[in-house]
Amino acid sequence: MRRRHPLPSRWLMTDERLGDDMPAKVAKLPRGSGVVFRQYATPEGKRRRMFAQVRRIARARQLVLLVAGPFLPGGDGVHGRKARKNKGLATRPVHSVRERIAAERAGVDATFVSPVFATRSHPGARPLGRIRFALLIRGARLPVIALGGMTERRARTLPGIAGWAAIDAWSEFGA
User: Fold this and answer.
1) Could you give the C-alpha distances from 114 to 36, 83, 90, 91, 100, in angstroms and in order?
2) The whole model's pTM is what?
3) Nearest 5°: CA angle at 109, between 104 and 136?
4) Can you tell me the mean pLDDT for 125-145?
């Protein structure tokens, strides 16, 4: 079955650290990139308004937009621990082989494996590092998006991935 959207190789993971500049950062992403709209701690009304703004930008820039957390209509799919294949793209976060296998069984389109490297998003979390990351994705039946301390440069050094995702890397390089 053909996907409605191709799977992007670059992703922006949103969170509250992006602040009110988040729409501007989305607008600077390369065409064809992906956005995982999270905003878990944002009050519901503001979250809906931000999502509508990001959705307009995503459509204009041909970005793939996934929704994590409480459902919001109008995205291209969903991202989350319980995501299953639906009409759009479905992705899951993965931190262990057990979670990777569960994602494969759920029939999602891709996994976001993290944290590959140390990240400000999860201070104190033990990063996988290159070796544990390689072991975790060995034999994966789904495309793997590397997440956690990622940059485009680091992504080029990780064999076997379909793409990378970040928050800070996009802030540091003008997006």
Assistant:
1) 14, 17, 17, 13, 11
2) 0.92
3) 45
4) 96
